[in-house]
Amino acid sequence: MIKFMSIMLALFISLNINAAEYLIKIKEGASFTDKSIKINSSFSLSYGEFAVIDINESELKSLKQREEIEYIEPNYTYTAFGIEDSDYDKQWGLKNTGRNSGNIFFPGKKGVDINAEKAWTITTGSNEVKIAVIDTGVDYNHIDLKNNILINDLEMNGIEGVDDDGNGYVDDIYGYDFANQDNDPMDGHGHGTHCAGVIGASHNNLGIRGVMANVKILPIQFLTKSGRGTLEGAVKAIDYAIQREVDIMSNSWGGGGESVALNEAVARAEKAGILFVAAAGNSNSDNDKVPTVPATIRIDNVVSVGAMDGKGKKASFSNYGKETVHVFAPGVKIYSTVPNNNYKKMSGTSMACPFIAGVAGLLLANEPNLTYQELKSRLMSHVHSGENLNTYSTSGYTDAFKALKN
Length: 406
Ligand SMILES: [Ca+2]
Ligand SMILES: [Ca+2]
Ligand SMILES: [Ca+2]
Prior knowledge:
The chain has about 400 residues and is of the alpha/beta class. The protein contains eleven helices and 15 strands. Helix content is about 25%, strand content about 20%. The strands form four sheets. The chain has a seven-stranded parallel sheet with strand order 6-7-5-8-9-10-11, with helices on both faces.
């Protein structure tokens, strides 16, 4: 009997392979009955009677002639235009479900994230907070970023070829490019745009979400499209960011070789009260022993960030340092914006750094008078240890919600 039933079922499916659902409206005063047609549902609205039926193409032709049918059309399917940003479920750094930070065989750990959703019940950011992304530039036209780019209004509404705001840079509308010495910090690499997305991709029902829904990002380029830059470019970039009065600098770059010039630039940022967030580096080495600048510059406004994976472990590549790595943040397979309205996953302490810049931004949005010392202290004192992250850094990985609640 069971065998017979299953054959019947299979037959039914194959016979109906060309059938599709149609919606009909029945003419006023008429009724629709047809024993040969499968009616999936019938319902009435304030203006008439309807039915949803399963028919094939030949049945459709004959039904179109039927007196009692006012109209017949496919029971079209529609998709939501956005309940939430469509790729948000890939962003384990914001909300780790376990599955999205690993795979079916090796899942990550649910809840190992910056606790963004709870943080957003307190604040999603502010357009008053200015964060410099010092990097390969930023695609300031990216659909998920363009509303959160800091525009230099005096230059935007000024005269071409004239330094309208008198800051020494002609037509610096979106920022500046110290790699090529021009006023266009468009990203030719992808790295800077990725970092910018982590901080502040719009919560606009498409693509991804940034740690901050609202922020003003200042693109400053000194790394070329091959991802390299010079000390000269770095100090110019930092000085420019100070002059544009940013609150936070996000620095996903670095290297060996301690530099007096770089120290001086960071010290000037400190004097201006600016938090200087820096990636710890990707060589799985101890920053306490081998310096990686600017992360290991021992000036109080520097927050050095290591990368963790979706289980709360130090990423295999991440530098560490009980003294010189201050916090950890998500930095493995991070999904974010890249130029030309694209998105992709990247890994590195480069990705962890903007998470912390973004959390610092949330703190400032909520309490605009916090000093860089207070910001740094909040970031470092509201942490989870994850898998022994307290042995690889001064603290652990930052919880944005707890930091906001203090
Ligand atoms: Ca200017
Ligand atoms: Ca101008
Ligand atoms: Ca978005």
